[in-house]
Design a protein that fits this description.
Length: about 700
Amino acid sequence: MAYVIGVDVGGTFTDAVLDDDSGSVIAAKAPSTPPDYSRGVLEVLELLAEQLGRPVEEMLAETHHVAHGTTSSLNALVMRQVPEVGFLTTKGHRDSIFIMNVEGRYLGRSPHELQHVLAQDKDHHLLPKRHALEVTERIDRDGEVVVALDEDEVRRRVETLRADGIRAIAVSLLWAFRNPVHERRIRELVGEIDPDIYVALSSEVSPRIREFARNSTTIMSTQVGPGLRDYLTSLETGLEERGLAGPLLVMQSNGGAVAASEAPAQAISTVGSVLTGGVVGSSQLGRRLGHRNIISTDVGGTTFLVGLIVDGEPERDTTTVINHHPINVPTLRVHAIGSGGGAIAWVDAGGNLRIGPHSAQAVPGPACYDQGGTEPTNTDANLVLGILPTTGLLGGRKALDLEKAREAIRTRVAEPLGLSVEDAAAAIHAAQNAQTGDLLRKSVVEAGHDPRDFVLYAFGGSGPAFCAKYATHLGVAEVVVPLGPVASAFSAYGLAASDIALAQELSDPAQLPVDPVRAEKNFAQLEDQVRQGLDRQGLAFDRVEIVREVDMRYAMQLAEVTVPVADGPLDENAVTAAADRFEAKYAELYGQGSGFSAAGIQAITYRVRGRGVLPFSPELPPLERADGEPEVSGRRPVYLEIGQGFVDTPVYDYAALRAGHVVTGPAIVEVPTTTVVVPDGRTGTVDDLGNLHITHSQKHGA
């Protein structure tokens, strides 16, 4: 017997899914344990072992690997809870991170914020100027050394930073991505002075053109690298002490995992790692169900996440934005807002009901958790509305206090708005659906897609309670709630289903037609780096898949578009074909006729993505077929529509449902780790894998 385990550490709950090589899948859920999240990981593993009826040591001894998605890097950056770091750069270029290429005034801001021009600022510096120091050196754009590195000056700069308590240094020199010799020598010098200082090099973290983005990526990776290293070291030690046989893998933003020992050196690649698990899981399940266009929605305790799968492939980005700074990280495209189950409902100065972005998280949690929280959340509203059972969550292991929920809503929302507690709870539920619907429109419609061509997948602890409504806001006809044994731990299922994925990139700007020999040399170098990286993971792969791509743009423009490059030796025809794909994709993104090929086309950044396919990954087992109609396990008053009040609603126990059962709304389906709402006018049909498909009832039409 061999197991694969996926662990999804969220701000509120930690989820885990275990799969064995015989097709069995089980899931578990436990509260997250900030600030030491490793305790929650070990607790949820204990719950998995309990379901197997085995000691956790025996389970881990037969585990092929553990795939772990963590929010620690992202949360630390977003909340700016990072240690002070140092920054070394080429003389004359220190201020690039403070000038911010002007972008610092607008990156990451909403259209509403951008309307207030005078309110824009650049006060969100990554580090104080006293920690940003310059060294004498210069490499030109062709990678030639123009000015040698002043090593004595480097030593003085490092000693200055050490004297100020700095234990991590980011090094980003001009044109280092063309020749990293000076950056590598600086790392050697730092190691001679103090080998315990963490050092990150831009030539390894972000070997991409554009100084500000490369600098900010390297600095932010340095800010989270030591903390990630310490966390993973502690977790890996705890797992090894409990007998883990296989490696601990860490999910990356690109949708694949990497060995825990490798992750801290590329710490920025783990930012958003937990966000991509659901997209990977949706892609895996979509192949089983025959869905090629999927809107993946994950509503956890803290966030609402949206990712798209188009024609069978997750959408990707090459850059993201955190705290108004560009980050050069190949990533699956995921949109997120603070609108999870623990999102706090509040009334602003204008008397408007708002949801999030602040969250009650695991501590103190929603008011109904009775852990000291006093602010109302989506979870509190769902309890008051009868959507959640008063018997509690996690199969009754997490007790809920209805009176605490009512009191929080009464004082913070109902009385300020002049509503009853029940109507205020219904307003919170409606506002949540409208807010998530807005993000869906932005992610789908504004990206140029027709939502009628998509199936929406809804998961997470809170997603199934809201999905039918926010799908209606978007105009999607079918919703799939992945249930079976994974339920709200679907992102952890995606982590367990992930393979090893590495990416290497290199900027080498040139006007087309590019010399095929030059392009082939770049790809060969990157592929060699990827294959060496895969070899270091310590795992045997069924096969290795290599994908080559290049970022192109029209001359005199900044908008770059990523296009695939065919396998095999590059010649002029292959380069021309890539250029044709660029023009076609540019027209698709920006409008027919918007391109201007007469200006010329430039190849900017070359990229190779490698995927090491692991021997096995989770497959949801088939469910027993239904024999007769589904049995109602109970009834309770549920308030789902403003103006209708409470309606006596049947409740179904998911454990008693079988493939082919049809549940007619309004109805509640209770799963130990989540609750599904099937509104009036909808039906929920259980498929052969145990998933619930929510569609319009025939009597209500499509």
